[in-house]
């Protein structure tokens, strides 16, 4: 069946076509006057394209070959190749899945009828962002890559600016724009140096370069800065929390679930060029990764804004993925195949997992904000009663993201733990095992962050009138969330299948890592894990039945929560989000501080007053912000060039080009 | 097969006895006769026959809390070897599943507590969340040390491996580990000096205050799950501290039971001679435990 299909249509062509359809999906809406049909048309087109694109991507992964197309573009940068290999195809999966789910969600979340002015642009740029990410994965010409990269970065900017009338949105947009362009500048350097080395703008073939030249180190470093800035790896993460928090929720889902992965894809792709990466590279990735994971989750714990918390946890997850990639690279350098296998399997699976549970949580946050009208967790509470289905789906996402069995987050972390432990018997790289307690701490903190999030939003009683009348989300909003929750469950319960999905990608990245014995060995271990998961679920069922049986025998009565003798408790006396995390944050005082302004109380009957808290990052406050202000002051003279006259800008470009041409001669 | 059946039987039946022994020890220290050894069983049976009061604030999350806590602990009980006998379920990496199963139970216990909307229970779960995440690295350092000593990546392999000759060769590392893990054992099971299981109307409580609103059969499940958790973590600790084995299957089971009772007596003694720590001291002690365990790891992997 599969081979027959493959004979009939080339899956690579299907994937390319699907990407183009998604990109054009928003265009008809720009010309339709009536609000509504354009958005529905775009959602339908995106979903149909994804329905074609996902099987195509799966086929491409399992075919283990690369398909090449050459685009005749007539620009002086050499041939423009489009190649889909298993690595590209693997990253295509989240692009298609998340963009389709998000466009369906948008129908309920950002309906054209209510948002006449913004909906068209939003729908158009949403498609453009998804499409540019898909094309980016296929681009093999450095110049074309940068062009698509810029389309991606700028469409994300326009999406982020949807609510540009708000001051904080504009600020977030500027920070994002600066960060992404610093990244792009680094990529310019990286790709130019690569072209200087290979003599063509085509990206080098796998394993074709040596990493031991100084030029190679610069190429890799610049690629790490450029792609790392997009992925949000520390210390390039500053833009991420505010950007993801201020975009509409389905856009945050796409940005967090997929766009960050484009940075990781870039790092993966860059690493494939070199056949002998030095140990230092792996060490840098590992250290930056584990630092991002730990600091990211500490930031997340302290947040009081629902979406900022989710965004900070993205930094954590990207850090976990980078750590996996780092240990895999250490394995490549030291020829330890089991380390390469486990590191890559863990990292790739976590990429997939994160692109399921993070969109699930961001879409959920969209529903929550829609219903309560605020992003402030301290003002919510009790939403679970009005929207039980959303609460259940959100709980699945929260458990999954904490890396707790029996859901998918645990599987990828399990593989990484096995990787950390794998060198314990060997005599080199033994110290890698010290990453395990750090990851355990990260897991513990993730649990603080997500119990805080889940419980302050859904549990207890409403803390403000805004949250008092929740309503269940419509089917267009519930369906995408349920879809992601199902994927989390499936990967958690049958992880062996997911391992089979990533193995072609591992082969493509480092052929020596894959041997039949290794893959069957870890396939069997994951099989045991899946049995343990089934056992866990059945234990829950047994205990539930036991409890129901005893419950039915006794008397059941209802009353209010026991107030320990205090009769006049109010909803505001519940433990709120800030109170819940205060103790945990206080342990990490030097990194993150919950600055609480307490009012001074005077006399026996103090007057009405209020208390506020602001989570502050020490590093950002003490180092990065002063540096940026300094840069702002010292480059103030350059503002004279910025006068807003279009023809003068074009003049600048022309003059620059002319000088460059003279110089080249 | 027989061993697996004995394993499951012991895990099902014995846990409340430990609580009985601890209670009796404390009574002896206080010069009282104390409740009978089987008192915890009577308590649980009695609770199972009582009615239930639900708070109107709560949702299904509140009801799921005790259930998930017991189910996860029960699965963890199948992963840990009792005495010289390997566990019924054992596979590469099962120690990670073991650690994370408790996390799942904790997630639901905390969510259930917060579901009541009581500030009291909120305090308890905030503390539980913080302390457990500080205790987590200690367990992992212990797993690393044991895994390095035994060359095994399964709980059964690494724990059954510990015997007198291993102790003789690496006594310093194991001694540090015993210290660190004992602190974690007390902290995870909410014993003195971290928490006092006998009172729940104090502002410094952790576990007991989280389950304040549970009643009837659900509370019986909680009590039993807490006893089982003590039993499971205790079985881990007993491997480190009292690594006897005779080679005879039946005698080994007897030895395991005796070691567990000894552990209960030790906990009882600690609870009798110590007072509870001030809350701000608790994180310090937990970090100290982590450092002890980290030292032992460095000693074996250097």
What can you tell me about this protein's structure?
- The complex is a heterodimer of chains A (665) and B (302).
- By secondary structure, chain A is mainly α.
- Chain A has a domain at 277-548 and 575-597.
- Chain A is built from 24 helices and five strands.
- Chain A has helices at residues 2-8, 11-24, 27-31, 37-63, 86-109, 116-138, 142-160, 167-198, 214-231, 240-246, 249-273, 279-302, 306-334, 337-372, 383-386, 388-401, 408-422, 435-458, 475-493, 495-509, 516-553, 577-587, 618-634, 646-664, and strands spanning 67-71, 80-84, 556-559, 592-597, 612-617.
- In chain A, the strands form two sheets. Chain A has a two-stranded antiparallel sheet with strand order 1-2.
- In chain A, strand 1 and strand 2 form a beta hairpin.
- In chain A, helix 4 (37-63) packs parallel to helix 6.
- Chain A is globular, with a radius of gyration of 26 Å.
- With 302 residues, chain B is mainly alpha-helical.
- Chain B has one domain.
- Chain B has helices at 2-13, 15-30, 39-48, 60-79, 94-115, 119-150, 155-160, 164-169, 171-188, 207-210, 216-241, 249-273, 281-301; one strand spanning 52-55.
- In chain B, helix 2 (15-30) packs across helix 11 and helix 11 (216-241) packs across helix 12 (249-273).
- Chain B is globular, with a radius of gyration of 19 Å.
- The model of chain B has no long low-confidence stretch (mean pLDDT 91).
- The interface between A and B is large, with 83 and 82 residues.
């Amino acid at each position: 069946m599969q081979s027959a299909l493959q004979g009939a249509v080339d899956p690579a062509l299907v994937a390319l076509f699907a990407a183009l359809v998604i990109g054009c999906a928003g265009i008809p809406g720009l010309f339709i006057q009536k609000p509504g049909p354009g958005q529905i048309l775009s959602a339908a087109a995106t979903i149909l394209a994804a329905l074609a694109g996902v099987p195509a991507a799966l086929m491409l992964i399992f075919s283990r070959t690369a398909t090449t197309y050459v685009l005749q573009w007539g620009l002086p940068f050499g041939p423009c190749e489009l190649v889909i290999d298993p690595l590209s195809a693997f990253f295509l999966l989240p692009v298609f899945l998340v963009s389709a789910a998000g466009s369906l969600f948008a129908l309920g979340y950002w309906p054209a009828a209510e948002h006449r002015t913004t909906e068209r642009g939003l729908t158009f740029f949403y498609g453009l962002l998804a499409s540019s990410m898909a094309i980016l994965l296929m681009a093999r010409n450095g110049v074309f890559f940068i062009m698509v990269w810029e389309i991606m970065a700028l469409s994300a900017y326009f999406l982020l600016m949807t609510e540009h009338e708000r001051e904080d949105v504009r600020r977030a947009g500027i920070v994002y724009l600066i960060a992404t362009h610093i990244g792009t500048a680094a990529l310019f350097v990286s790709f130019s140096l690569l072209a200087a080395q290979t003599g063509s703008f085509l990206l080098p073939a796998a394993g074709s370069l040596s990493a031991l030249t100084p030029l190679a180190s610069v190429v890799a470093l610049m690629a790490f800065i450029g792609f790392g800035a997009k992925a949000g790896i520390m210390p390039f993460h500053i833009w991420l929390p505010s950007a993801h928090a201020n975009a509409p929720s389905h856009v945050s889902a796409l940005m967090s679930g997929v766009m960050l992965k484009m940075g990781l894809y870039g790092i993966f792709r860059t690493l494939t060029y070199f056949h002998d990466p030095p140990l230092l590279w792996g060490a840098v990735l590992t250290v930056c990764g584990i630092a991002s994971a730990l600091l990211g989750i500490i930031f997340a714990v302290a947040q009081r804004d629902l979406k900022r918390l989710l965004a900070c946890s993205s930094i954590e997850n990207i850090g976990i993925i980078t750590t996996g990639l780092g240990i895999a690279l250490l394995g490549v350098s030291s020829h330890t195949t089991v380390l390469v296998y486990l590191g890559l399997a863990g990292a790739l699976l976590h990429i997939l997992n994160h692109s399921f549970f993070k969109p699930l949580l961001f879409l959920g946050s969209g529903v929550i904000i829609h219903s309560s009208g605020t992003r402030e967790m301290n003002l919510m509470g009790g939403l679970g009663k009005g929207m039980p289905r959303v609460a259940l789906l959100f709980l699945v996402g929260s458990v999954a993201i904490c890396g707790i069995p029996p859901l998918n987050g645990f599987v990828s972390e399990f593989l990484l733990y096995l990787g950390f432990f794998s060198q314990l018997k060997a005599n080199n790289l033994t110290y890698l095992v010290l990453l395990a307690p750090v990851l355990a701490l990260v897991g513990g903190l993730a649990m603080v962050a997500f119990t805080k999030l889940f419980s302050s939003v859904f549990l207890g009683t409403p803390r403000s009138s805004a949250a008092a009348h929740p309503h269940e989300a419509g089917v267009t909003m519930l369906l995408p969330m349920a879809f992601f929750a199902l994927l989390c469950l499936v990967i958690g319960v049958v992880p062996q299948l997911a391992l089979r999905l990533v193995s072609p990608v591992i082969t493509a990245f480092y052929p020596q890592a894959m041997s039949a014995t290794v893959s069957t060995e870890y396939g069997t271990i994951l099989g045991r894990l899946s049995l343990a998961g089934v056992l866990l679920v059945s234990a829950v069922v047994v205990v539930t039945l036991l409890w129901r049986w005893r419950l039915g025998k006794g008397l059941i009565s209802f009353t209010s929560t026991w107030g320990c003798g205090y009769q006049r408790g109010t909803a505001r006396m519940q433990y709120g989000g800030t109170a819940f995390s205060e103790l945990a944050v206080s342990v990490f005082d030097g990194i993150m501080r919950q600055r609480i302004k307490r009012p001074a109380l005077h006399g026996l009957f103090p007057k009405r007053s209020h208390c506020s808290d602001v989570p502050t990052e020490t590093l950002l406050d003490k180092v990065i912000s002063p540096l940026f202000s300094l840069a702002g002051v010292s480059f103030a003279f350059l503002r004279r060039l910025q006068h807003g006259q279009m023809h003068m800008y074009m003049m600048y470009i022309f003059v620059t080009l002319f000088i460059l041409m003279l110089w080249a001669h | 097969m027989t061993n697996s059946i004995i394993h499951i039987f012991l895990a099902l039946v014995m846990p409340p006895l430990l609580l009985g022994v601890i209670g009796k020890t404390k009574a002896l220290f206080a010069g009282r006769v104390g409740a009978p050894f089987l008192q915890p069983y009577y308590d649980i049976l009695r609770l199972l026959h009582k009615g239930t009061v639900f708070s109107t604030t709560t949702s299904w999350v509140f009801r799921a809390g005790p259930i998930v806590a017991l189910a996860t602990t029960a699965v963890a009980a199948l992963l840990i070897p009792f005495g010289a006998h390997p566990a019924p379920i054992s596979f590469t990496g099962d120690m990670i599943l073991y650690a994370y199963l408790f996390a799942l139970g904790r997630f639901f216990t905390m969510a259930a507590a917060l579901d009541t909307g009581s500030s009291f229970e909120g305090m308890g779960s905030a503390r539980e969340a913080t302390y457990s995440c500080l205790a987590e690295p200690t367990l992992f350092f212990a797993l690393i040390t044991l895994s390095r000593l035994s060359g095994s990546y399964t709980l059964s392999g690494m724990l059954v491996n510990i015997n007198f000759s291993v102790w003789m060769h690496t006594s310093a590392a194991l001694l540090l580990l015993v210290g660190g893990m004992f602190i974690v054992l007390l902290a995870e099971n909410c014993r003195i000096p971290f928490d006092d299981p006998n009172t729940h109307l104090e502002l410094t409580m952790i576990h007991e205050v989280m389950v304040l609103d549970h009643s009837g059969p659900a509370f019986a499940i909680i009590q039993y799950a807490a006893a089982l958790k003590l039993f499971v973590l205790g079985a881990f600790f007993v491997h480190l501290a009292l690594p006897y084995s005779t080679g005879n299957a039946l005698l080994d089971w007897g030895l395991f039971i005796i070691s567990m009772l000894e552990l209960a007596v030790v906990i009882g003694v600690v609870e009798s001679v110590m007072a509870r720590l001030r809350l701000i001291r608790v994180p310090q002690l937990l970090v100290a435990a982590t450092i002890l365990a980290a030292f032992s790891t460095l000693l074996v992997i250097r």
